[in-house]
Design brief:
About 35% of the residues lie in helices and about 15% in strands. It is an alpha/beta fold. It folds into two domains: about 5-180, Rossmann fold (3-Layer(aba) Sandwich); about 195-430, Alpha-Beta Barrel (TIM Barrel). α10 (about 290-295) packs across α12. The chain binds cobalamin (B12).
Amino acid sequence: MIPHILLINPWITDFAAYNFWIKPLGLLYIAGLLRENGFRVTLIDCLDFYSKTKKFGDGNIFKTKIEKPLSLKSIPRNYCQYGIPEEMLLKRLSNLDEPDLICVTSGMTYWYPGVFKLIEITKKFYKNVQVILGGIYATLCYDHAKRYSGADIVYKGGNELDAVKLISKLTQFRIPHSAFRNINYPAFDLYPHLGYVCITTTRGCPFRCTYCASPILSKSFARRDPFKVIEEIEHWTTNCRINNIAFYDDALLVDPSRHFIPMIKEVIKRSIRCNFHTPNALHIREIDDEVATLLYQGQFKTIRLGFETSNEKAQVETGGKVDNHEFRRAIKNLKRAGYSRDELGVYIMVGLPGQRVGEVEESIAFVRETGAKPILVEYSPIPQTPFFEKAKRFSQFDIEKEPLFQNNSIFPCQWDGFTLSDFRRLKEKIKREEI
Ligand code: B12
């Protein structure tokens, strides 16, 4: 008997969420591998329901206002469930054959209420079917997930091959080692309508920034063969007529002569027609004249740069991935290549533990002065990262016990040197272009 695996991407529950090319890439990799090795797979992506889509495929996700979880009651903002209405999920479940196993993924740690609700619903629906929970929340908050999620098995980190081995064991569907097929693209074709795909050409990151979870999620840094990536890009653009691709890499530009440069030169040589986006930010240090020109010629339309701060002491303390001189040089190169101010979004982290409002003001002014566009990103304290201990000392919330307090929207590390009203004032000033 061929096992039937139901894979589900749950709702987001948050104060705000935007489809900045969001897809459950890990789950889709697993779905692709399972199918390749003889399993029957069904995907339900609860987020695949949009209220507005823009020209590059990003946009707004349909939302339903819901009750705030008890611990967030004091936050004076609406709280929503993003994605398909519950009735639609129930209808989809009732049209399915009973699965042999349910695989649920998870995103941001503070999105767990949507995950729990989904598990509860599926458990009610299929009383005797086991549920495995994996993904980012499951990996970073493993004990919390084991205790409270309701899943039968919580899967920590790992890679998709290990996940498939586990699924094979649980369903007693043996894949002979010699016959294992690993020609695997994420199973994006399971979507009825597809406006874009996401891709990752590397796993992990060689940097060790103190606020970032990348080294915990991927223990080592690995790169795919650039030519295999090109084959995948061609597959999406030619066979599936996709013309927007978002890179999920944490380190797309690292060691460019061996990775990014050969890859993008091939995109240009083969005249691949596609818009590329880097919502997860690029490493600034690597953007020399050649890389900047290739980004522009290669049709990278949405550029985000991970700058975080212009404060030199903070740059060194948080991992030293970039300095101000390198930043100025990169912006100069990108402008010379053809990018305008509005196309160059620069992430500045706000609300790092112990950070003062003045540091952010200075960073904004610095970015503006170079002719790029500052974009404020509120800091989310992430368990197991070096900065989490510091964040615990600064936060008035119990960020360790309750992952909901890791939500960047509540400004978890506000303190006397940087209050929530300071932050609101700052946003107003930016809007009016006063800094
Ligand atoms: C792409 C990305 C985004 C995308 C959205 C992705 C999505 N689908 O939600 C965008 C750009 C929108 C985004 C936004 C943000 N992000 Co982000 N993002 C990522 C990133 C780079 C990659 C995630 C990914 O897809 N990985 C690739 C796939 C292959 O891996 P995976 O999903 O983990 O799956 C693997 C395993 O987990 C497992 N698995 C997965 N599911 C399942 C299920 C089962 C059953 C099993 C067995 C196994 C399994 O198998 C896969 C094996 O390869 C991660 C960093 C990272 N390296 O993971 C940060 C990360 C998740 N983001 C983070 C942050 C901080 C943010 C922001 C808050 C940044 C900000 N300040 O604005 C925002 C939040 C937006 C919001 N509305 O709240 C943090 C986590 C924060 C947290 N508390 O959880 C991370 C870890 C980055 C970091 N710096 O540490 N992000």
